[in-house]
């Protein structure tokens, strides 16, 4: 699988290309999305419009197009005028298709549990 990483795709047959793509999805940057699909865990996604999405990934492709579920969209609005403070806003979206060209970063969301003794 990884032995095909440095070979031009034009020199590979269909089976080898499929193996290489499966390897890249399971070991590369898309592995975060793959784990989210398998475990139904949340992913924090940063977008080009400076918004963030906290969601569960149901499906994705190599272009980072995604089908998302239970999406919390978060952003900051800066009011115009002097002395006004930025306001954090959010909204809930039950299902969403996200086009991959707007994705900057996807990060596994980990819940931290604090224990006090």
Task: Write a structural description.
With 117 residues, the chain is α+β, with helices and mostly antiparallel strands. It has a single domain, classed as SH3 type barrels, CATH 2.30.30. Helices cover 20% and strands 38% of the residues. The protein contains two helices and five strands, in the order ααβββββ. The protein has a five-stranded antiparallel beta sheet. The chain is elongated and about 60 Å long. The termini are far apart. It comes from Cryptococcus wingfieldii CBS 7118. Its main location: cytoplasm.
Query: How many β-strand runs?
Result: 5
Oligomer status: single chain
Beta-strand residue fraction:
35-45%
Helix content: 10-25%
What is the highest CATH level, the class?
Mainly Beta
What is the strand arrangement across the widest sheet?
A: 4-3-2-1-5
What is the string of SSEs from the N terminus onward?
HHEEEEE
Q: What fold name goes in the CATH topology slot?
A: SH3 type barrels
Described by the principal axes of the CA atoms, the overall outline is: elongated
Sheet with the most strands, sense and barrel status: 5 strands, antiparallel
**Distance between termini?**
48 Å
Q: Count the DSSP helices.
A: 2
Radius of gyration: 19 Å
What value does the average pLDDT take?
A: 81
Structural class: alpha+beta
Count of domain modules: 1
Q: What's the CATH architecture?
A: Roll
Show unreliable segments: 111-117
């Amino acid at each position: 699988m990884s032995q095909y990483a440095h070979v031009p795709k034009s020199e590979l047959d269909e089976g080898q290309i499929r193996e290489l793509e499966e390897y890249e999805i399971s070991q590369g940057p898309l592995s975060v999305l793959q784990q989210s699909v398998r475990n139904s865990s949340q992913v924090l996604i940063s977008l080009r419009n400076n918004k963030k999405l906290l969601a569960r990934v149901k499906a994705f492709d190599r272009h980072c197009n995604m089908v998302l579920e239970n999406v919390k969209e978060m952003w900051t609005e800066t009011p115009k005028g002097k002395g006004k403070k930025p306001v954090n806003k959010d909204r809930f979206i039950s299902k969403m298709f996200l086009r991959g060209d707007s994705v900057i970063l996807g990060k596994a969301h980990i819940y931290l549990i604090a224990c006090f003794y």
